[in-house]
Automatic annotation (TrEMBL):
Its EC number is 4.2.99.18. Keywords: DNA damage, DNA repair, DNA-binding, Glycosidase, Hydrolase, Lyase, Metal-binding, Multifunctional enzyme, Zinc, Zinc-finger. The keyword Hydrolase applies. Residues 224-262 form the FPG-type domain. It holds the Pfam family H2TH. It is an enzyme of class 4 (lyase). The keyword Transferase does not apply. PANTHER family: ENDONUCLEASE 8. This is DNA-(apurinic or apyrimidinic site) lyase. Belongs to the FPG family. SUPFAM superfamilies: Glucocorticoid receptor-like (DNA-binding domain), N-terminal domain of MutM-like DNA repair proteins, S13-like H2TH domain. It comes from Streptomyces endophyticus.
Amino acid sequence: MPEGDTVAQAAKRLHSALAGQVLTRSDLRVPRYATADLTGRAVVDVTPRGKHLLTRIEGGLTLHSHLRMDGSWKVYAPGERWRGGPSHQIRAILGTETRTAVGYRLPVLELLRTTEEFKAVGHLGPDLLGPDWDPDTARRNVLGEPARPLGEALLDQRNLAGIGNIYKSELCFLLRVTPWLPVGELPAEAADRLPLLAKKLLEANRDRPARVTTGRPRPDERLYVYGRSHRPCLRCRTPIRTADQGDGSRERPTYWCPHCQQGPAPTA
């Protein structure tokens, strides 16, 4: 699933292509909105909210989309070949005289009144890359259920919005605790560092083509633990381990160093 920095990049591309332009083509390929016609309306802006995209359109409308695991928005110039996937995977087309934005495999696509955006994103916690960011609220939210594993609390977008499975693993490594540590056992210093460290990581990667958490540009050293199963830890050379961890809806591969990170972990 895309992380908050990836969604922010997508919003920036869409905003650059569409904002201030009048739509000359509109095609929402979901049954509920199949007859909706947005042509003749100008795009006001495209704003990210956590992992959600809000495309605001003249007349008080917002097209809300969520990429989840496989969704994407691609922007094409006139005459450019569309390469985002087969046509049956297209869920939305928003075109102007100079650019066309095409949404592929979008699991969430809905047209809302802009005044009712809260119905789509009102449940989210403080956005790590948004104007509503509040580290104190984010900290309280994450620590709100003392028995909950830290990894699950970080993925819960109601606590703070924008962290996905990659940053979950990387943050836990940087805090030197396992993702299975109950948040009530998180050392006070680590709890205080967590919100600001999370924001720092996402902000550092918001404009990067390749995500880096280590400060090392080499492709095999950009991340501390994520995707490095059985490879040596960049700090201590202990083999990185992996196991599934749930987030309340599905199991996700989770990575950690058994030497550098303290706390409970699967034994298998």
